Amino acid sequence: MAGWSMRSVGAGLSEQSAQPEYRIEDLAHHSGATVRTIRAYQDRGLLPRPERRGRSNVYGDAHLARLRQIADLLDRGYTLASIKELLEAWDTGRGLGGVLGLVAEVHGPWTDEEADRISRAELDARFGGTPDEEAIREAVELGVLERLPGREGRGEEYLVPSPQELAVAAELYAAGVPLAAITGHLRELRDQVEHIASRFLEFTTEHVFARYLEHRPPTDADAAEAATMVRRLRPLAQQTVDAELARAMRLLATRHLQFHLSPEPPLVRDDQPRPVSLPAGTIRAVQSLVGAEGIEAFIAAATEREVNKRTLDALAARQYKDEEIG
Q1: What is the pTM of this model?
Q2: Contact indicator for 30, 64 with CB cutoff of 8 Å
Q3: Which of 21, 45, 139, 140 has its CA 20 to 30 A from that of 221?
Q4: For position 6, what pLDDT does the model report?
């Protein structure tokens, strides 16, 4: 986080210096934290106790820097428990600079694409010229758009984190795809891509990063080396997905075209299994229960169970009918 340095965090938390001094209300004002939050951090051991001067508690710049550091880590998604571990590592002399460098590297951009701005008028023009509040709401919910504070004379504006993604949506809409279908497809695609990202992280953690994470938190040297490795491996996930998607699209698009250009649909003999398409919602529900790897086995087991149940029901009904006749 800009504005603080590691030296200021570690220096003089227990030593009196000529640095500015704050009452707790002043510290709250400068840090953006509430008085209640500051006291809670002290109780949890995240923030050192103030110095006692007569009847007053006095805080210094080191306390202010520590509060800003905690806020930065919270913004990055760390829990108070994990933050406490990191801060304790620093306070015991194990170093924290490398760890924060690793945090910054992982939290940094994973694409070369740069965000852009778009006005509401430009946005409406790209999607048919008719305002659609529901589509805007869904785009904001999905993070495709982010509302920006209005500026005088500029009208309503949005931040576009991925101009490429918005451009794809605009092209699909121009080709005749309804906005509701586009956002629905994006939700489905996002679930699948997040699963791919999760598997890539598990894979690289097991084979690359495990050795850097043996200590909690890792040493300064290990964290710095891991940050360098993140920079090297960062492009690999997207490159792999791009290559595999291109391969799959070439293969499946060819099959799809052949099917639709055939004078007659391919014949399927009665003794051959027929392909069955399951609703996307069903697939997502099964995936949430058993994970992507277990979908096929789960559906096969559920089908077999249903077949066995119906077979038993038929046998029981036949037995009952035989008994009645007899």
Answers
A1: 0.53
A2: yes
A3: 45
A4: 38
